[in-house]
Task: inverse folding
């Protein structure tokens, strides 16, 4: 599958990108703390219903907040789609 990206104007002080995936267009942006409940819900669904993670127990919001702060401090990119649908570790 091909993914085409083009830059668009800055949104809220952070650069957004428009991403065309097949025929679906989405905005990819840096994650914020407000995204964490959605990230936790998606991750926990994967823990419970798939073999996509080695975790056996769902994560709490507190655990995911610590994860977010750890990677944010190291300036690692944590990206979400404008509506959180999935995650990439």
Result:
């Amino acid at each position: 599958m091909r993914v085409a990206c083009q830059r668009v104007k800055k949104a809220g002080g952070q650069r957004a990108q428009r991403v065309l995936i097949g025929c679906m267009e989405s905005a990819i942006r840096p994650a914020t703390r407000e995204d964490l409940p959605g990230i936790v819900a998606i991750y926990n669904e994967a823990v419970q219903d798939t073999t996509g993670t080695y975790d056996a127990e769902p994560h709490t919001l507190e655990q995911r907040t610590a994860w977010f702060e750890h990677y944010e401090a190291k300036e690692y990119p944590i990206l979400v789609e404008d509506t959180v649908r999935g995650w990439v570790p």
In short: The helical segments are 36-49, 61-73. The chain has two helices and four strands.
